[in-house]
Each structure stands twice: as structure tokens, then as C-alpha cells.
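Re: the 340-residue chain
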Amino acid sequence: MIRASVAGGSGYAGGELLRLLLGHPDVEVRQITSERFAGRFAHRVHPNLRGVTRLRFCALDELAECDVLFLCLPHGASSRLIDRFRGLAGRIVDLGADFRLPNGADYERFYGRPHPRPELLGSFVYGIAELNREALAGADLVACAGCNATASILGLLPLYRAGVADSAVIEVKVGSSEAGNRATEGSHHPERSGAMRSYRPTGHRHVAEIEAVLGGNVHFSATAVEMVRGILATCHVFLNRELDEKALWKIYRSAYADEPFVRIVKERGGIHRYPDPNLLAGANYCDVGFERDPLSNRVVVLSAIDNLMKGAAGQAVQAFNVMHGLPESRGLEFPGLHPA
């Protein structure tokens, strides 16, 4: 059994990660930390785990050695404590943003301050298996991608790899769980209920990740909608050559035919013709669809994920499986709910 611990397990992503690891046949969960809830049972914070585990939260200072340490910490904590964490575990999977970017200049541009450990940037493998499977195999340090970046990259990657995309405009609609479990003015029910609020029309930090993978000329906006889980990325892609529907199908099928967690969703009829994040609650899938604009060189690509799964905990477990040479879908077989 692979001994795993979770640092920072009281948030939504930490709770999902704990749920997955508890059900993983190759994992023994040793510890889960929370400074706020140290000493309390995990199910007091994650009530869906009632009767599943008797683990209690402990403080960070109580972490013992393990084989793999998953980090679900507030921004900045991973880079501040990374030396200590590396002394506790041979492998680290960081779900935070501290080590996602390849260089300090990009970090300072999007986060507004110098990175505290710039010499470590580039030493973490970016955790999207569909992008970096070979690098993940045997990796010791992994930085999971941001949820909005994951949905956008997986939607657009086939077109950019094929060299047919000239530019893209991405608009994501996101659920409230993306903001975490700390109450804020924006999460207050009278303010959030019924909302369709543009909260980052420009300058979103995840743009740095998208540009690092796809290159420049990507434009991104984010809108909060009344939904708990889920992201729908609507990507307007402007092609640099004429491509018909058959050619687009060929590009996407060749890219994703063998991927266990990417599904091409493009039906001829019915209400579920295109990706819908509501169908992915609790699942690690990314559903991708597209529509060719017959009046221009534009393709509309639609990409849907559960932000807490494929955008966080599920992605982390998928990367963990690849790192250890396990079947990639181990512990991630749940197909989602309908209706949800």
C-alpha cells in the first residue's frame, strides 16, 4: 500500500481528495491536516464521509513521513514550506498554484509579486495527464493545473497542437465551489443566488497557465453563475485555414480517442447535444464538443468539467496513478450523476 497524507484537507478540494483516496485500493491514508479543525473528526467537516473514516485532522506540525504528500494549502504556503514537505515525502502532488508556472517572470506578472522560490519553478511537472503523461510517469514533484486552465486547455489543445488555431477567446462559467469554503460577500446567499456575475473579465491568473501550454493570443473572461460544482468553457477559436466538420472530427478523435477521461460530446439531437457540467458532478471526465461556424473561420469549442474533480482532486489522483505506474482510472471510475 502507498502511504498518503493530505496537508490542508478541510477545504472542498481536500474533502474530495480524501473521498477519492479512501476508496483507492492502493492507498492507505495516514493523516489529514487542518489548523482550524485539528483534533476533530474529518466527517465533522466533510459529512459525506460519515461512517467511511474515523480519521481526525491534525496540525501541520504533526505530519509524519509518508510516501506521497498531497498539498491542498492556501496560496503561498506550499512554496514557504516546500523544504519541510520534501523531507517528509518522496513524492509531492500540489493542488495549489505555487509551482504551476515555468518561470518567475510569468508568476510576478500574474500574481503581482516575485516568487519566493524561483529556483524550483520548472522542477514540478504540470499535472494534466493528457498533456504530460510521459513526464508524470515516475515524477516526484507535480503541480496540478488550475480548474479553469484545465477546462480551457483540454478543449483547445487538439487545435493548437494541429497548428490550425490563430487565436482564441475563452469565456468560462463557474460554480460557487471554485471560490472555496470560506464565506465571503460574494458567496452570501442573497448576493449569489440567481447571479450571473462577471468577476474577472480580464487578467485572470489561469491565463498564465493557458499561455504557457498553448502560446499567446489567448483571451479569457470568467463569469460566476448559480451552480455549486462545474465549469463550462466556451472557446471561440479563429482558424488560420479552412477546415470542414470532417477535418475537425479527425483532429479531435486523433487527439482523444485513447484518453480515458476525455469524451467528445457532439450529438445530432436531444437536450444533451453538447458538454454540460451538471452531468459531471463527482466525475473525473472532461467533456469536449465543437461547432463550426459556417459563416466565418470560427469554431466554438465547449469544454465541461467538475472543478473539484478533473479541475482539482480527480486530476491529482489521475496524476498519482500515472506517477506510480497504476491503471490511470484506478479509484476514478465514478461516471457522474443524472439528474443531479
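The chain has a mean pLDDT of 95.
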